[in-house]
Amino acid sequence: MTQSAVPADHDEQRSPLRAGTLRAPAVRACMMRVADRVAAAFDERGAFAEPTHSRVLESALMLTLLRRHNRYPHVQTRLQHFIATRRTDPHLHPVEQLLAQAALSFAQPPPTLVQGLDQALDQALDGIPAHTRGRKQLLFALHLAVLGQGTYPPRAARLDYRGQSTWAELTGCAMKILATHGLGHRPDAQDQRFLTTRLAASRREVWEGNVGAHTLALLALHTTDPGNRLVADGIDALLKVANPDGGLPFIPDHTLFITSVAGLALARCAPPHHHELLVRIGDYLAEHQNDDGGWAYTERVTQADVESTGAALEALHALNPTRYSHALTSGRAHLAALAGEDGGFPTYLRGEPSEPVMTANAVLALAPDPHRYAALLHRAALFLLHAQQPDGTFERSWSLTQAHALRRTTAALTCLRTTSDQTLSARIDQALHRAGGYLQHAQNTDGGFGHQAGDASDVTSTAHALSTAATLNQPPWTAQAIAY
User: Fold this and answer.
1) I need a labelling partner for 238 at 20 to 30 A (CA). Which of 93, 342, 414, 454 fits?
2) 370 C-beta neighbours (distance < 10 Å), count
3) Phi (first) and psi of residue 243, to 5 degrees
4) Residue 191, Cα to own-chain centre: how many angstroms?
5) DSSP 449
6) Residue 131 has what pLDDT?
């Protein structure tokens, strides 16, 4: 780290920065304070359980369901208040703006149609990964139709929803039933049976922990069988996870994923006084591994995903690879089986489109066992090299910030360097150089980074950029980013 010309009486514990420079002991002290704060967030099980924030989409769907079911007028009032309040947020996503408008104009007879709906949705979904864009546009068009804005898209009534992730199947089935009914036709009996069977078989009160999928399914069930007990029970279960602001989140929590990320961070800091906590964290993660070897984002969810599985494997390997050897072996085998023909990895199921960030997650989880997975890792390296954009970036996946994708992909590419393949190593070095060039260009004058180049700085994006800097041998912009 660069040493600063700070007077001897400078209090590094309170203010480690002066004129954009810093001292390493001050950074270390700051890191330990953060570590203690993170450690304090774990419960006695070793889980990092934190609720997620409310969102307009799920809140609007629940408001519509309660209106149709004629239940809980006081809850409807709270949901309306939440949506109206959120609508005034200047940073609200354009899709949520459309949904808030639809939910709040519900009572106006006749409903005010959203003008230029297709164009508005197209603009609102700018930046969504290409392989999910069409599906999301169809989903949001149907949401707006459910909320009384626009017409039901005929394509939704022809959906083939089988063979996808658990919540994609339930959501697709619900969309098909709602669209069919909304277009004046009778929903298929097989679709109705699939919907009710899935709803009745959940391991959680909120179906697979997915508030949006559960609510949409209840809306579909209400159109065909409003008296079904699953509707009333489902409403009560969903309202139990409502937040104090009156809104509903998209998932109640993502405890397994956050526990993995926080556990990995603590394992790398290795503060001695947190040793017992680290054991609890590892045991908790190992205990909640699914039968198929993967991990879901939270407890009692059957659908594993590459993001959560990779995070859990990274954490367990860092915590104690011997103690958790069985979980690591079965988890890596689960991941390896998801590899696509192109060398990349999807989010959920083999055969789905490969994604750069998910591929990087898999690489980082499999890399500690290079002999077993050498061929797979080589193909993954080629996939990542091909996926890099000319400006050095990668598709952002689920994150808003470009630096998150760079953090994961550069870390994966760095560990894929090999002395036995100089050509591959040279290509990786070139890719890392392009990634570093993007970040150098994207850094703002205040030292921080925004979601993308040109956006205002925020702490999360800057933290991701700094993690990327660790794989790039701490380029010159690192000190200023830490100062930010």
Assistant:
1) 93
2) 13
3) -85, 165
4) 29
5) B
6) 67
For residue 403, pLDDT beyond 90: yes
Both tokens of 140, joined, read: 């949001």
Could you give the percent of the chain with pLDDT greater than 70?
90
Q: Are 462 and 451 in contact (CB under 8 A)?
A: no
Which range among 18-32, 113-127, 259-273 shows the weakest confidence by mean pLDDT?
A: 113-127
Contacts made by residues 79-85, CB under 8 angstroms, sequence distance 24+: 79/246, 79/247, 79/248, 80/104, 81/246, 82/54, 82/245, 82/246, 82/247, 83/56, 83/59, 83/247, 85/245
Q: Who's near 231: CB < 8 A, 6+ residues apart?
A: 69, 218, 221, 222, 225
Chain centroid, CA 479 distance in Å: 29
Distance separating alpha carbons of residues 353 and 342, to the nearest angstrom? 9
Place of tokens 């149907």: 142
164: burial class by Cβ within 10 Å (0-12, 13-18, 19+)?
middle
Query: What is the helix (H) or strand (E) element at residue 21, kind and residue range?
Result: strand 21-22
Q: How far apart are CA 199 and CA 333, in angstroms?
A: 30
**What distance in Å separates the CA atoms of residue 190 and residue 188, rounded to the nearest whole number?**
5
Q: What angle do CA 381, 377, 464 make, to 5 degrees?
A: 60
Q: Which of 210, 176, 365 is nearest to 303 (CA)?
A: 210
CA angle 122, 307, 205 (to 5 degrees): 85
pLDDT band for position 271 (cuts 50, 70, 90): confident
- Amino acid identity at 271: P
> How does pLDDT run across 71-115, given as a tens digit for each residue?
999 999 999 999 999 999 998 888 888 899 889 986 453 344 444
pLDDT score at 15: 33
d(CA 432, CA 419) in angstroms, rounded, equals: 17
Query: Three-state SS for 151?
Result: coil
**pLDDT one-digit tens code per residue, 221-234:** 999 999 999 999 99
Digit-coded pLDDT (tens) for 357-395: 999 999 999 999 999 999 999 999 999 999 999 999 999
pLDDT digits 0-9 by tens, 425-448: 999 999 999 999 999 999 999 999
C-alpha torsion sign, points 444, 446, 450, 455: negative
Distance (Å) of CA 355 to CA 132, 135, 298, 400:
11, 16, 22, 15
Instruction: Calculate mean pLDDT across residues 12-35.
Output: 66
Give CA torsion, residues 215, 221, 222, 227, to 10 deg: -120
Name the E strands within 33-132.
Answer: 54-55
Beta-carbon contacts of residue 342 (< 8 Å; ≥ 6 apart): 354, 379, 383
